[in-house]
Design goal:
It is a single chain. With 236 residues, the chain is an alpha/beta fold. It has a single domain, classed as Vaccinia Virus protein VP39 (Rossmann fold, 3-Layer(aba) Sandwich), CATH 3.40.50.150. Helices cover 25% and strands 30% of the residues. It contains 6 helices and 12 strands. The protein has a 7-stranded mixed β-sheet, sandwiched between helices. Strand 3, helix 3 and strand 4 form a beta-alpha-beta unit. Helix 1 packs parallel to helix 4. The radius of gyration is 18 Å and the shape is globular. The model has no long low-confidence stretch (mean pLDDT 94).
């Protein structure tokens, strides 16, 4: 792993000649991701992220924290005890430079023996599952990290709209995937290309079924204008 996303975050934080971050998926063309967007303040956040910030309570685990913008708001503006984790050492270094007190470079599946009141998976954080077949493994582990009465706040999108329609209004879905929300993701930065990795977008109904199958209650908190949504999961 070249950690190009983390390099872009750290370059921006340290003003080390930050470059243009390019993203591409197996179903979309190459596009620019403004790195400064990852450093947004609460007023700059989408409405669904602001809602998640409002709902966050108690001790918080920000999973896949990136540049740490959500964790910083919760730590500094809501005075919550926040732990921010990411597999990117560069991103965590940037988080520390921004003033986050509790951070760790770790895969969430390796994070154990501690419980939190809120697990945060924003910017399609559930995408770390990679494939739909892995979601039970992650949900079960998330359940082990939840304190009694705790909650998981996550957003994702139904990307069915991105596929072409046939004459009858049906969608042309690739046959090489078990689920249409499974995509391959590529990142390029400063003439380097990250190895492609699996990323999952999950529609609400499918998430609801997975939640119930793994002992969670689920609530649709908010729907966006672009087939996206914010959900809250609690132990049944």
């Amino acid at each position: 792993m070249k950690d190009l996303l983390g390099k872009a975050i750290l370059d921006y934080q340290t003003q080390n000649n930050p470059g243009i971050l390019l993203t591409e998926t197996s179903i979309s063309e190459e596009d620019e991701m403004p790195v400064d967007y990852l450093f947004r303040t609460y007023p700059q956040m989408p409405v669904m992220e602001q809602k998640a910030m409002q709902l966050a309570m108690g001790s918080v685990l920000d999973i896949g924290c990136g540049a740490g913008s959500h964790a910083l708001y919760l730590q500094n503006s809501k005075n919550l005890q926040v732990t921010a984790i990411d597999i990117s050492a560069n991103a965590i270094e940037a988080c520390q430079l921004r003033g986050l007190k509790n951070t760790a470079v770790i895969n969430v599946l390796d994070h154990k023996d501690k419980q939190y009141d809120t697990l945060l998976l924003l910017m399609n954080g559930i995408g770390i599952c990679g494939k739909l077949s892995h979601i039970s493994t992650y949900l079960q582990h998330f359940g082990s990290l939840l304190a009694p009465g705790g909650q998981i706040l996550l957003d994702s999108s139904d990307i069915i709209y991105m596929f072409d329609e046939d004459e009858d209004g049906g969608k042309w879905i690739p046959t090489d995937k078990d689920y249409y929300g499974e995509v391959e993701f590529k990142i390029s930065y400063k003439n380097e290309v990250e190895d492609a990795f699996d990323w999952l977008y999950i529609d609400y109904n499918t998430l609801q079924n997975a939640a119930h199958a793994n002992g969670f209650e689920i609530e649709l908190i908010q729907e966006g204008e672009n087939f996206d949504y914010l959900a809250r999961l609690t132990k049944a």
